[in-house]
Design goal:
3 domains, eight-stranded parallel β-sheet, Immunoglobulin-like, TIM Barrel, Oligo-1,6-glucosidase, domain 2, alpha/beta, five-stranded antiparallel β-sheet
Length: about 575
């Protein structure tokens, strides 16, 4: 085993699988219609059966909830909506008792405007906390300081009449950006993370962390880099690596924490820096390029069929690039900010079970640490939305208003939200065939998808060939075979219009994944050079498939709709 492989084996999280919990929608134990911490604790045996190593718990801090907890008003107190600090301590203890670990969200690009720091900052220009945030005078002709736009729509500046200045809000108007140029802000953040490390938290997911360093000139965006909303002046900014290395030296490293950085609009080169062990920053990174392949010209709130070749190309570029640069990927198709991949990239009706297994097999064979978002392991699709009144997401409601103001009909605006809204991923977890899918005995904060009687955990556990058991087998395979961790990526399909095929080449063996992303039965022929290298003389073992056939690895493969297979090829 080479030196890189030895280092990666020592880093246990490279062979692990993470399960993402959106607590508001996971399990309600009080009947108030909102999920809570004890609801997660109650379901830890379920996650252990799945084979999960790390549970990522999204924000449960005190918050007014304008952005579902990502607007933090107190970093060191539990929101009573989710329970108590005693409930949190019990969760940590129960996870550790099962040999599992806890990763929590850290949201420090901004705070809620209800945070005590901001209340102090807005009270007076002379207040010590004023410099905790980013304030600017109006432009010379009046109005906002520059033309930067909020990611939730509208200008990225909010006016404070009392002081005559604007403060920066890259997200919701109630989320004020922190001034990371202020050393005291950086000290406060480190002390807060140490508070949670002392409580036994094993890792952090760092929300939009590559936006914390802004170009201090705060210039207008000239539009030379699409979409021209200012992001080129605050994405992967001038001091961001300095700030993150300081976090590593003071918190992540000493406490041996597993960390993942959420990287907004970043580059491959930057993610190599963020996640390379030599750089002492993060364990791994999220990037979102593969989830923009259905954005026409980068515009999220317009619809188009997804570009399959672009999806494959992006996965391949990031696999190869991160391997060559020594970085590490966080692998995912789903999260709380994305519509369900099952509805987005495959068939969530006739071939729902095959499609869900295909997406899992395709993703889990890649190099990186896989993330399972609650419900994907049972094949939850996008819900069926009937009216704008059913939505709760602030970004979606803002964009519906903006789209209508721009001349889009209400019917078309609703159709866009049905495909794009973050609420697609946030409907309550479907546990069983009982009222509200067993999520709550009260009225759920967000509608439960009407298909829950057929799509729920209870049914999945009872069926040996279920989507859940497919995920469980994949997770176990990643622990059993080193090629999942160390195998070198090679794409095999050569721009095939329906098939994504790749290999992971290890010491004397290869992992091969072939997936038919179409509703057609097709024949896929492996190119001669790849067949010579992989299968001509090797012994093949089918590790996992999503159809009844025990498919042998041959140069020419007949693939039924949404068929997906994973083989281990012994080359000794």
């Amino acid at each position: 085993m080479n030196q890189v492989s030895q280092a990666r084996t020592a880093e246990w999280w490279r062979r692990s699988t993470v399960y993402q919990v959106y607590p508001k929608s996971f399990r309600d134990t009080t009947g108030n219609g909102t999920g809570d911490i004890r609801g997660l604790t109650e379901k830890l045996d379920y996650l252990q059966e799945l084979g999960i190593d790390i549970v990522w718990l999204q924000p449960v801090y005190v918050s007014p909830g304008h952005d579902n907890g990502y607007d933090v008003a107190d970093y060191e107190r539990i929101n009573p909506e989710f329970g108590t600090m005693e409930d949190f301590d019990e969760l940590v203890a129960e996870l550790h008792r099962r040999g599992m670990k806890l990763m929590t969200d850290i949201v420090v690009n901004h705070t809620s405007t209800e945070h005590e720091w901001f209340k102090q900052a807005i009270s007076s220009r002379d207040n010590l906390y004023r410099d905790y945030y980013i304030w600017k005078d109006p432009a010379p002709g009046g109005g906002v300081p520059n033309n930067w736009q909020s990611k939730f729509g509208g200008p990225a500046w909010q006016y404070d009449e009392a002081s005559g200045q604007y403060y920066l809000t890259l997200f919701d108007k109630t989320q004020a950006d922190l001034n990371w140029e202020n050393e005291q802000v950086r000290r406060e953040v480190n002390e807060m993370m140490l508070f949670w490390a002392h409580k036994g938290v094993d890792g952090f997911r760092m929300d939009v962390i590559n936006l914390i360093s802004k170009d201090q000139r705060f210039p207008d965006d000239d539009g030379s880099v699409p979409p021209g909303d200012g992001r080129k002046y605050y994405t992967d900014g001038p001091r961001v690596h300095e700030y993150i290395r300081a976090m590593y030296d003071e918190v992540f490293g000493p406490y041996e924490l597993v960390t993942v950085g959420e990287m907004s609009s970043t580059t491959l080169e930057q993610c190599i820096r963020y996640s390379s062990p030599e750089q002492r920053e993060f364990s791994m990174t999220f990037n979102f390029h593969h989830l923009k392949v259905d954005y026409p010209n980068g515009r999220k709130w317009e619809l188009m069929p997804y570009d399959f070749e672009a999806l494959k190309r992006l996965f391949s570029e990031w696999q190869t690039g991160m391997q060559e640069g020594g970085g590490w990927n966080a692998l995912f198709f789903n999260n709380h900010d994305q519509p369900r991949a099952l509805s987005r990239f495959t068939d969530d009706t006739v071939y729902r079970k095959e499609s869900a297994k295909l997406l899992a097999t395709t993703l889990h064979g890649l190099q990186g640490t896989p993330y399972v978002y609650q419900g994907e392991e049972i094949g939850m699709p996008n819900p069926r939305w009937k009216s704008i009144e059913e939505f709760r997401d602030i970004e979606s409601l803002n964009m519906y208003r903006i789209l209508c103001e721009q001349g889009t009909s209400p019917e078309q605006a609703l159709a866009i939200l049905q495909e794009r809204s973050r609420d697609n991923a946030r409907t309550p977890m479907q546990w069983e065939n009982s009222p509200n899918a067993g999520f709550t005995t009260g009225t759920p904060w967000l509608k439960v998808d009407e298909r829950y009687p057929d799509i729920n955990v209870q049914r999945e556990l009872e069926r040996p060939d279920s989507i859940f058991h497919h995920y469980r087998r994949l997770i176990a395979l990643r622990k059993a075979h080193a090629v999942f961790t160390d195998g070198i990526y090679r794409r095999l399909d050569e721009a095939h219009p329906e098939v994504f095929a790749y290999a992971r080449m290890g010491d004397g063996e290869a992992l091969v994944v072939v997936s038919n992303f179409s509703s057609k039965e097709i024949t896929f022929r492996l190119p001669d050079d790849h067949w010579t290298d992989l299968g001509a003389e090797g012994k093949d073992t089918l590790l996992l498939g999503n159809t009844a056939e025990q498919a042998a690895f041959t140069q020419e493969l007949r693939l039924s709709p949404y068929a997906s297979y994973m083989w281990l090829i012994s080359q000794n």
